Amino acid sequence: MLNTTLLLVFVGAASCGGVIIGDPSHVVYLHNTSDGAVLVYEVSGTDRVFDARVAAGATKEVGWLISRTSPRKRTVEAFDEAGVLVFCQSYSYDELEGIAWRIEIVSGQNACGSLTRQDSRPMVAHHHQ
Description:
Layout: H1 2-15, E1 25-32, E2 38-44, E3 47-54, E4 59-65, E5 74-80, E6 85-91, H2 93-98, E7 102-105, E8 109-110, E9 125-126
């Protein structure tokens, strides 16, 4: 019964564009350079996934499934605890590789345009804590 359930979860995730067996996993280091804690989200396409709460000055390791062949960039959004966007930046696989998979969250760096509040875009799933 357990094996059947796990198989159904993997098949369901694969059919929804989620985890596929064989997808490469990479450790991404989220380093918060700001003075306060931030809530970090990974955005890929229309999916927005909570990655971690990162304390001021701390670094948190998270696992991302990302492939070199994926044309889609990953966007990292960081919000302060009041829900205000303090950081937003998009990265391709090659860009992440070039920065050794270490993302420096710098308060005030917003390359994503007009998104300013955490509730401006719905969260679809929880990822890591």
